[in-house]
From TrEMBL:
One of its GO terms (molecular function) is oxidoreductase activity. Residues 5-183 form the Ketoreductase domain. SUPFAM superfamilies: NAD(P)-binding Rossmann-fold domains. It comes from the Bacteria. SMART domains: PKS_KR. This is SDR family oxidoreductase. InterPro entries: KR_dom, NAD(P)-bd_dom_sf, Sc_DH/Rdtase_CS, SDR_fam. Keywords: Oxidoreductase.
Length: 240
């Protein structure tokens, strides 16, 4: 029986990450990373999905022992690594404290950097693809989201640098930057602003997942370096 290519997806238990798992399990053996035990248990029941419970912040930044990371290290090759985990908080540059900076910088930049480094030999072995799920905020920052925008801009620089440094090893690097997407994180941000949440106004997460899949399934002679995914009607252009 032909062996399926292997994909590792972070932030796999909700939002865009969960949709990425649903899309890639059609063609890959997916290792779905997360912390929510109930959601991981449900994912593990799906064909071609292996749930991996791991706190990447504790394991990669804090140095904690992790069976989940050991499971990834045991893989001989990885065809796709998708960084979907991330955190967004309200915080302007002029008001943000060190705790906010550290939380978002660690999760949005340092964790994907360290995980990519840890798995790089396996990606080289497969001539695989790394996809960093970024945000439109890295290109068009919004007031009150300065720290988030800064960390997402750093993530873009991280992806671009990895691409240059590992180009000779056959590894492709893509940044997928969605605009406002219908996820629990987006809903929480809107609630914190005391606004009304209108799911139909936002990008469906499965459509972002399809863009990620396009990058992963691209032919061997090309890499899609940057994919911007925008809502059909920008929020600023809506009158309803």
């Amino acid at each position: 029986m032909h062996e399926l290519p292997v994909a590792v997806v972070t932030g796999a238990t909700s939002g865009i990450g969960r949709s990425v798992v649903d899309e890639l399990k059609k063609t890959h053996r997916v290792y779905a990373l997360g912390r929510n035990q109930r959601a991981l248990w449900e994912l593990d029941r799906h064909t071609n999905v292996t749930a991996v419970e791991v706190d990447l912040l504790d394991a990669l930044v804090g140095g904690a022992e992790s069976e989940g990371l050991a499971q990834l290290r045991a893989l001989p090759k990885i065809d796709a690594l998708i960084h979907s985990a991330g955190v967004a908080r309200h915080g302007s540059l002029q008001d943000a404290g060190i705790e906010l900076w550290r939380e978002m910088a660690d999760i949005n930049v340092l964790v994907p950097a360290l995980l990519t480094k840890m798995l790089l030999d396996r990606l080289k072995a497969a001539e695989g693809t790394v996809v960093f799920v970024n945000s439109g905020a890295s290109q068009k920052p919004a007031p009150g989201m300065g720290v988030y925008a800064a960390t997402k801009s750093a993530l873009k620089g991280l992806a671009d640098t990895f691409r240059v440094e590992i180009a000779g090893h056959g590894v492709k690097v893509t940044t997928v930057s969605p605009g406002p997407t219908d996820t629990p994180m987006q809903e929480k941000l809107v609630a914190e602003r005391d606004d009304t949440y209108m799911p139909a106004h936002y990008i469906a997460p499965q459509e972002v997942a399809e863009a990620v899949a396009v990058a992963v399934r691209a032919g061997s002679s090309v890499q899609l370096t940057d994919i911007n995914v925008r809502p059909r009607i920008e929020l600023s252009d809506r009158d309803d």
